[in-house]
């Protein structure tokens, strides 16, 4: 049957007319076209709907998403940079800071920490800076899972920069020490600590000399203005920054257990290799009489995760985007057409009587012709 048809088409000759027969877009002649207010309303509504859907689709396309990948970290000879800026409520001559890592090297070969005598109480301008940072960081810590996309996308910087210099100097002796600087370490587990007494390097380790200190000299209240790993990067939250701990008992041991996760962030605009960390904190008063032994001080015990997180910004393929646009326009057009027909039929049923009269009339007039 099909064959027959084809031969018939061929038989009729003219290629043009056979192509014409394949036209699936039937032309309605002008006199039979009818416009109506309902149809016009439908056109406007579908046009607006199409406009709105296309707008949100374009928005979706432009707003890419982030893909997270976890891979074993094989960059073992990479270095780990650690940036600190911590103020402890004890004068500098009572304090010693050190880093020990599991290679047992004296890591002060890799950089050094500056010490600066200061006052624990911040100047008003510094207080404002620090409070902002603290509020912001605690907000981020709680809402972290919801805002991370935003942070990376907008290249938002969570780093408030350095603490501004004091705008007033109190009239009393220094009562605190600010320790700040960066080291470049081996990428292995280690322990950065600030304890009482200057440290002394011995062939088999190091000790802190604190023989001349009395009980009242101890006060490990501290404020962390900066504690980060790697180079500064947008969108990374450093959970320890903006922390302030006031201790009511001088000889207290503060332990921070830190897990450092190497993180590569590849956005359309930049790519960064940096580190994030999570932290658990533990404070314990040291009282040898009550069986709570240890050394009072601040201990930051860090370890590097074996997994590396890769964050990649991605957006749909252009073809997929175009296909979506087409399906929106076509879909709305077809659906609104159907709906228009449906509503017309419904309203015709409603006016069935009138309609039948009209029909009979028109048939009559047709017959008379
Ligand atoms: C430690 O210093 C802070 C700040 O100056 C103070 O508020 C706190 O009471 C001190 N703690 C002790 C045990 O002296």
TrEMBL record:
Q: Which Pfam families match?
A: COPIIcoated_ERV, ERGIC_N
TM regions (residue ranges): 38-55
List the GO biological process terms. endoplasmic reticulum to Golgi vesicle-mediated transport; retrograde vesicle-mediated transport, Golgi to endoplasmic reticulum
This chain belongs to the protein called Endoplasmic reticulum vesicle transporter C-terminal domain-containing protein
Q: State if Membrane is listed as a keyword.
A: yes
Q: Does the keyword Transmembrane helix apply?
A: yes
Residue ranges constituting the Endoplasmic reticulum vesicle transporter N-terminal domain according to the UniProt record: 19-106
The entry's keywords: Membrane, Transmembrane, Transmembrane helix
